[in-house]
Amino acid sequence: MTGVWALVNAAIAYGGWLGAEPNPASLRQLLWINAGLDTLYVTLGLILRKRQEPIYKGFGLAIILQGLFLLGFDVFHALQI
Fold it and tell me: Residue 22: CB partners within 8 Å, gap ≥ 6?
């Protein structure tokens, strides 16, 4: 699951890399919106980790790790703009 999400993120990043230079103000706003969504990812991962089935615990951990990385990435870049 983590590998698939990494491929999805790489495709999105590649598309952004090829696109036009965004307006800094709108990019900052988008990054803060993404940071809010990242907290939802982490929350969903925590909920899945509380389930009894091992597969949900694994999915929950994968979502938590990705959500934390994306949260750090979005906040770091929002503060740099």
Answer: 30
